[in-house]
Structure formats: structure tokens, C-alpha cells
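Sample pair:
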Amino acid sequence: SIGPEMFEGEALGLSLMYETKSIRVPRPFK
């Protein structure tokens, strides 16, 4: 029960971090 839950949590954290990053520092290249 470690696999799926951990993976989901990591994906959520990564997407959240990515969103905050792109919001705080907009990417110059699009």
C-alpha cells in the first residue's frame, strides 16, 4: 500500500510545486 499512495502524493506535490513556481516566476520561454 506504499506504492500507489506515495506515487500519487509525490505527483500532487510536484504539480503543486510546479504551479507555485510558474506563478511566482513566469517562464520567459513559451
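The chain has one helix and no strands.
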